[in-house]
Amino acid sequence: MRVWQIFKHNEKDYERCLPERQKVAAILGRAGEMLKEALDISDQGRNWMSKAETMMKDAFSLSEQGLFLQQKTIVPFCYDLARIDGNLGLNEGIGVLLTLLIGTGGTVFSNANAYTGVGDSSTAASATQTGLQAATNKLYKAMDTSYPSISAQTCTWQSTYQSADANFAWNEFTVANGSSDASTNLNRKVSSQGTKASGQVWTLQIAVTQS
Asked: pTM (2 decimals)?
């Protein structure tokens, strides 16, 4: 399951919810640290697996708390919240996920590498595409602090587009492991979500659940 959300703020309201955003970032950041610690412990051998599993459960629970807090404390400042279900995995992205799975290489979709992307093309999604389809009106933005995050079987990526960013029609969306179409794009979704303008801050989030 894939769910995209766009949190649409006026610039002033976005600044007003800064304390709430900082709280969410701190919670998700700590959850990410706990998950990394758990994975490091699991590498120490079978005797450490029980402790690692407990830490992972605690990390997932903390991540859920952060995402819940986001919905309860930040969403009220939005003038609109768009929710878009579904998306298409791209062949190049699936290929990289598989090579990462078996340890034969590939660039991870981590905080340091991952970007979300938006463009104004309404060209239908196809698995053979290798990026956003817009000719010029497109932009990739780096991850917000503490993203991507993991909660149980769901991984969430999030980027914020400030007042001067991506002021065009938002018709297509992607997650990539770099800052352009030349990087590997994990997926692509086509959906008309209105036109962003100067003075607005839109936050793009995608949650991917594997089951």
From this structure: 0.87
